[in-house]
Amino acid sequence: MDVTSDNLQELKHRLEDATVKCSERCLYQSAKWAAEMLDSLPPSDHEDTDPESPMEMSDIAPTSINPYLQIQDPVEAALEAQEAHKYLLAKSYFDTREYDRCAAVFLPPTTPPVPLSLTSPNSKPKHSRSSLKGKDKASPFQGSKGHVQRNPYPRLSQKSLFLALYSKYLAGEKRKNEETEMVLGPADGGMAVNRELPDLARGLEGWLSERSSKGLEDRGHGWLEYLYAVVLLKGRNEELAKKWLLKSVHQNPFHWGAWQELNDLLASTEDLKQIVDHLPQNIMTLIFHVYCSQELYQATEDTYQALSELESIFPTSAFLKTQRALLYYHSKEFEEASTIFTEILATSPHRLDSLDHYSNILYVMNERPRLAFVAQIATATDKFRPETCCVVGNYYSLKSEHEKAVMYFRRALTLDRNFLSAWTLMGHEYIEMKNTHTAIESYRRAVDVNRKDYRAWYGLGQAYEVLDMSFYALFYYQRAAALRPYDPKMWQAVGSCYAKMGRVEQSIQALKRALVAGSYTADDVAQSASPGAGARKVLDPETLHQIATLYERLGDDEEAAAYMELTLQQETGGAPVQEENSDEDEFSSASENAAHSDAEGEHSGDEDTDNMPRSRRQKPRTSSFAMQNDDSTAGETWHQPTATTSKARLWLAQYALRNEDLDRADQLASELCQDGMEVEEAKAIMRDVRARREDAG
Amino acid sequence: MARYLTPWRISLLCLITVYTDGVVPNSSAIHVLSFLTAGLFPLDPADKQWEKHYLPGIEELEETLSHHESSIPGRTLWDLFLKKIWSLDSLDALEELMNDVLPSLLSKTREQLIHDRDNGIDPEEEGMRLSRSSPLGVFIRRACLEYTRLQFHDSVRLWTGFVKYRLPTYHMWARRNPSDEQSPVDVNLAMNGLDTNSYLSQVVYGNFEEEAQEEGTVSVKDAERLVEFQVGELQRLGGRVPDEMRAQLKHIMTSESSVPVLMYYLEYLDAWRAGDYTSAFDNLHRYFDYTMHSNVDRSAYQFALLNLAIIQADFECFSEAISAVQEAVAIARESHDMNCLNFCMSWLYHFGKAFPEQMREVQNSGMLGNEKEGLAFLKAKSKETDMWSLLSTTLVSEAKLEMQQGESLASIIECFVRASHVNMTKSLSTSTGTHMQLQSIMYARIGATHLSWLDTEVFRECYAEGSPYDDFVRITFRNCQILAQKGNYKESFSRMNKVEPERLRAFRYNNSWTYYSGLLQLRRQICRDDKVAVEHILSQLRAVQLLEFDMRLLLAFHTIEFTIRQGDYGRALRMVEQAAHSMQPENFDVHSQIKLLCLKARILEKSGHPQRGFSLAMRAASIAHRSKILFDLWESICTLAAVLLSLREFEAAVELVESIMPQILESEDFALIARAYSLLVDANMGIAGELWSTLGRESLPARKEYVSRALGYIDSAYDSYEEIEDLLGQTEMMAKKATVMHLTGDPVLANDYAAKYLDLRRRRGAEV
Question: Which residues in B544-572 are b (16+ Cβ under 10 Å) and which e?
Answer without folding.
Answer: eebeebebbbbbbbbbbbbbbbeeebeeb
